[in-house]
Specification:
The protein is mainly alpha-helical. The protein has 6 helices and 2 strands; from the N terminus they run ααααββαα. It has a two-stranded antiparallel ribbon with strand order 1-2. Strand 1 (88-92) and strand 2 form a beta hairpin. Helix 1 (6-37) crosses helix 5 (106-126), helix 2 (44-55) crosses helix 4 and helix 2 (44-55) crosses helix 5 (106-126). The radius of gyration is 20 Å and the shape is globular. The two termini are 32 Å apart. The relative contact order is 0.09. The model has no long low-confidence stretch (mean pLDDT 89).
């Protein structure tokens, strides 16, 4: 008895191809976005951090790290760089003076607005010729895989 049928082998091939294409897409998109933002001296990791500050200004360093998919040490380095560049101002929480807060400065808000325009342009270029129907189907498939992944124990 064969361990894998021809159909199983074809499915395995497609799964590997899908994984490779997803990795290339994410890596390539990030690379193009980093290049497009180079003139503003900001990286996609820094933008993710600034977006998190905007959305959750009272978050702890550990929460910021998780949200940005980096280590707590890297999140701290992102914070230091954001403060140095004038994108973020640090302060203390009004209710608990031991908690350090962060909020975007007007310069940080302008940078995020600029990055949003760049991001939208890049998305339009990447997905040119792909129908709304196909995008919805791709999202459905990705959500299914993500749900399966998230329900698995590490």
């Amino acid at each position: 008895m064969d361990s894998l049928s021809s159909r199983d082998l074809k499915r395995d091939e497609e799964l590997r191809r899908t994984k490779t294409l997803m990795r290339r897409m994410v890596t390539g998109f990030k690379s193009h976005l980093d290049e497009a933002l180079r003139s503003k001296n900001v990286t996609t990791s820094q933008l993710r951090f600034l977006n998190e500050v905007r959305q959750n200004p009272g978050s702890s360093g550990a929460q910021m790290a998780r949200a940005c998919f980096v280590t707590p040490q890297s999140a701290q380095a992102l914070m230091v760089k954001a403060v140095e560049r004038g994108w973020v101002v640090r302060g203390t929480d009004a209710a608990n003076h031991r908690l350090v807060t962060a909020r975007l400065t007007p310069a940080g808000e302008r940078l995020l607005a600029y990055a949003e325009v760049v991001l939208r342009r890049l998305e339009a270029e990447v997905w040119a010729g792909v129908s709304l129907k196909d995008l919805k189907e791709m999202n459905r498939v990705m959500e299914c895989g993500l749900e399966n992944l998230e329900t698995k124990a590490p």
